[in-house]
Amino acid sequence: MAHVNVFDTTLRDGEQSAGVNLNRLEKIEIAKQLERLGVDIMEAGFPASSQEDFEAVKEIANTVRNCSVTALARSYKSDIDTAWEALKGGAEPRLHIFLATSPIHMTHKLKKTPDEVIETAVESVAYAKEKFPFVQWSAEDATRSDYDFLVHIIEKVIEAGADVINLPDTVGYATPVEYGKLFNYVREHVKNIDQVTLSAHCHDDLGMAVSNSLSAIEAGAGQIEGTINGIGERAGNAALEEISVALEIRKDHYDFHTGLVLKEIKRTSDLVSKLTGMQIPGNKAVVGRNAFAHESGIHQDGVLKEATTYEIITPNMVGIDSNNLVLGKHSGRHAFKQKAESLGFQLTDSKLKEAFLSFKDLTGKKKEVTDGDLFAILTDKQTENEDVAKYELKAFQVQYGSINRPTATILLTRPDGKEVEKASTGEGSVEAIYNTLDELLDEEVHLQDYQLSSIGKGRDALAEVYVQLTVNEVTTSGRGSAQDVLEASAHAFLNAVNRTLQSNEQPVNKVQA
Ligand code: KIV
Ligand code: ZN
């Protein structure tokens, strides 16, 4: 069986999803989990796009040791230099440069002739190769490019030193047969193609990203690119968990495998969903809530008699473990620490102590504290920046009645340590809380989006709220979990505001790739 490299771009193309806005600590947490998942290459960001992205890429490159860390650059020397500064401490520094090759992009976006595009591509690859041991070159919008032009430019960038050639279906336009043909065409016509690995990068605008990636593998791609949960620009990228499980389950058909540790899929998917706020649809293949649920009586009967009647993937294979050890109110600090480690968390002593207190608090309110609850508590603690002063909710009260206008009273500690209190009303309880917080904060805040979900099942399940705000014109997001929906709502709002204070976030110049 041939090995196919997995190139994960959750932290770059995935982070380009509308509304997604990860901070440095969250990116590092995802990077560590991607390393555990066993990706071969992770694209950590686009360092030239903002100081924050630069810092995050640098820290990831310096932290991750078991896979190659790469970053995106436009075909500018300054982008390449910035990427080198961010990546040079990595285990295997690698650069990803792109330039559009389709007539639409060359004419309207780049405003360059095909010859100028070739010259720019060759120059940038040669320049990158002076610094980086590995250089990947992407022909943006390859699937809408002229095949013979592609052959010509690919030959030239290979001569200039490229190690990997990526043929992105940037706008998700190709069909599986066409995409496979493109790979075959390039393999048959580019005379120095044996010197490089071919890579597939598919977007899901027509819902064909995974099928297209599988088709590329069959046509000679030695690397597939994608994201966890398929997040990404517009309709997203190819979902890596779907591709890797498809190769495993259908190994009778595909003679290829990835090195992914399939048991890490569930945790990776949960972490990415939680930190990005992009909920996983219940019917999503491999990781959706219903992917292993059998609803009809006939199916249930069949599965009870023999699981393979209706189940082609076992939940266990992707890390869904129904025999979780549940912690309760008698569990001590040691058991809690062990559990946290078994869930993949390595917290500092002070964070572990605080997480333990939150856990103890929850055991007083909830019969069983599940892995989902612990995952929420531990992730929140792990990604919290302790070093910066912030707004903190001290106490709040909401008066609600079907014939009264809801009123919220909130006591808050400000970043300067002062306590302030106010009451205000709204059409609903959440609005009353948000109006009151507005009055208590110095920042100018506008709510853009609000999502509510529950962690696990049952009446006493934790509520999780995800909000998107603009704070002083900077778009940001926040999350909060609590047993009470209103408390979770208040925490999410303050979390978003605190994030902008902690990061001095500037509007991020995300590349539209
Ligand atoms: O979709 C795309 O073309 C990209 C490139 C930057 C590789 O993401
Ligand atoms: Zn892309």
From TrEMBL:
<protein>
    <recommendedName>
        <fullName>2-isopropylmalate synthase</fullName>
        <ecNumber>2.3.3.13</ecNumber>
    </recommendedName>
</protein>
<dbReference type="InterPro" id="IPR013709">
    <property type="entry name" value="2-isopropylmalate_synth_dimer"/>
</dbReference>
<dbReference type="InterPro" id="IPR050073">
    <property type="entry name" value="2-IPM_HCS-like"/>
</dbReference>
<feature type="binding site">
    <location>
        <position position="201"/>
    </location>
    <ligand>
        <name>Mn(2+)</name>
    </ligand>
</feature>
<dbReference type="InterPro" id="IPR002034">
    <property type="entry name" value="AIPM/Hcit_synth_CS"/>
</dbReference>
<dbReference type="Pfam" id="PF00682">
    <property type="entry name" value="HMGL-like"/>
</dbReference>
<dbReference type="InterPro" id="IPR036230">
    <property type="entry name" value="LeuA_allosteric_dom_sf"/>
</dbReference>
<dbReference type="InterPro" id="IPR013785">
    <property type="entry name" value="Aldolase_TIM"/>
</dbReference>
<feature type="binding site">
    <location>
        <position position="237"/>
    </location>
    <ligand>
        <name>Mn(2+)</name>
    </ligand>
</feature>
<dbReference type="Pfam" id="PF22617">
    <property type="entry name" value="HCS_D2"/>
</dbReference>
<feature type="binding site">
    <location>
        <position position="13"/>
    </location>
    <ligand>
        <name>Mn(2+)</name>
    </ligand>
</feature>
<keyword id="KW-0479">Metal-binding</keyword>
<dbReference type="InterPro" id="IPR054691">
    <property type="entry name" value="LeuA/HCS_post-cat"/>
</dbReference>
<keyword id="KW-0100">Branched-chain amino acid biosynthesis</keyword>
<keyword id="KW-0808">Transferase</keyword>
<keyword id="KW-0012">Acyltransferase</keyword>
<keyword id="KW-0432">Leucine biosynthesis</keyword>
<dbReference type="InterPro" id="IPR005671">
    <property type="entry name" value="LeuA_bact_synth"/>
</dbReference>
<comment type="subunit">
    <text>Homodimer.</text>
</comment>
<comment type="function">
    <text>Catalyzes the condensation of the acetyl group of acetyl-CoA with 3-methyl-2-oxobutanoate (2-ketoisovalerate) to form 3-carboxy-3-hydroxy-4-methylpentanoate (2-isopropylmalate).</text>
</comment>
<comment type="pathway">
    <text>Amino-acid biosynthesis; L-leucine biosynthesis; L-leucine from 3-methyl-2-oxobutanoate: step 1/4.</text>
</comment>
<feature type="region of interest" description="Regulatory domain">
    <location>
        <begin position="392"/>
        <end position="513"/>
    </location>
</feature>
<keyword id="KW-0028">Amino-acid biosynthesis</keyword>
<dbReference type="InterPro" id="IPR000891">
    <property type="entry name" value="PYR_CT"/>
</dbReference>
<feature type="domain" description="Pyruvate carboxyltransferase">
    <location>
        <begin position="4"/>
        <end position="266"/>
    </location>
</feature>
<keyword id="KW-0464">Manganese</keyword>
<comment type="similarity">
    <text>Belongs to the alpha-IPM synthase/homocitrate synthase family. LeuA type 1 subfamily.</text>
</comment>
<dbReference type="GO" id="GO:0003852">
    <property type="term" value="F:2-isopropylmalate synthase activity"/>
</dbReference>
<dbReference type="Pfam" id="PF08502">
    <property type="entry name" value="LeuA_dimer"/>
</dbReference>
<keyword id="KW-0963">Cytoplasm</keyword>
<feature type="binding site">
    <location>
        <position position="203"/>
    </location>
    <ligand>
        <name>Mn(2+)</name>
    </ligand>
</feature>
